TrEMBL record:
It comes from the Bacteria. Residues 15-182 form the Lipid/polyisoprenoid-binding YceI-like domain. Pfam families: YceI. This is Lipid/polyisoprenoid-binding YceI-like domain-containing protein. SUPFAM superfamilies: YceI-like. Belongs to the UPF0312 family.
Length: 185
C-alpha cells in the first residue's frame, strides 16, 4: 500500500460529510502497566470542508461516549459511569479544527477536543488515503489520523494503585481515526 504524500486540494475542494458507518474512532491504553486495552467510540456526525488551500479547510466531528466498546460489558459500564466519562452529564465529545498545515510530506490537523466537559488543543498526524467512487456514484475520500492524549488533562483521574507499584489505568491514551467521507453536491 502506498502513502499519498500530496493532498490534492483541487480535486477535494468542497464539503464532505463523514460516513459514520464506515468510520471509526479507536483508542488504546495500558491496563495494569502490562497489557493494551483497545476500544472504540462511535462518530455520530462530522464535516470536512476542503478549501482552495489548507488555510481555508476545516473539520468538525461529534462522538457519542455512550457507545464506548472495549469488548467487556462491565468495563464499558464503568467507563460510562461518573468515575470516568459520566455520559449522562456529558453525552457528547466534539472536535473542531483550528488549522491544517503541511509539514514536509505530512499533515498536522490541530483543533479543540472536548471530552468530559473539558476542552484541550490537540494535534493529529493526518494522512490522506485517496478518493474513490462507490457503487452508488458517491465520491468518497479517506483519511487516517493519530494522536496521543493525557486522560488527566480531561479531568479523568479515577485509578487504582497496584500492589506491585504503578496504577491500573495508564494516563496516556493513543487515539486513531479512520474516516470515510462523502462529497456533498
Amino acid at each position: 500500500m502506498s502513502t499519498i504524500t500530496a493532498l490534492p486540494t483541487e480535486s477535494l475542494t468542497g464539503t464532505w460529510v463523514i460516513d459514520a458507518s464506515h468510520s471509526e474512532a479507536g483508542f488504546t491504553t495500558r491496563h495494569a502497566g502490562i497489557a493494551k486495552v483497545r476500544g472504540s467510540v462511535a462518530i455520530t456526525e462530522g464535516t470536512i470542508v476542503v478549501g482552495d488551500d489548507l488555510t481555508t479547510s476545516s473539520v468538525t466531528a461529534v462522538l457519542d461516549p455512550a457507545t464506548i466498546d472495549t469488548r467487556d460489558a462491565n468495563r464499558d459500564g464503568h467507563l460510562r459511569s461518573g468515575d470516568f466519562f459520566d455520559t449522562e452529564a456529558f453525552p457528547t465529545w466534539t472536535f473542531t479544527s483550528t488549522s491544517v498545515v503541511a509539514q514536509g510530506g505530512e499533515y498536522v490537523l490541530t483543533g479543540d477536543l472536548t471530552i468530559h466537559g473539558v476542552t484541550k488543543t490537540v494535534e493529529l498526524a493526518l494522512e490522506f488515503n485517496g478518493t474513490a467512487t462507490d457503487p452508488f456514484g458517491n465520491a468518497r475520500a479517506g483519511f487516517s489520523a493519530t494522536t496521543k492524549i493525557s486522560r488527566k488533562d480531561f479531568g479523568l483521574t479515577w485509578n487504582a494503585a497496584l500492589e506491585t507499584g504503578g496504577f491500573l489505568v495508564s494516563d496516556d491514551v493513543k487515539v486513531s481515526l479512520e474516516i470515510s467521507a462523502i462529497k456533498q453536491a
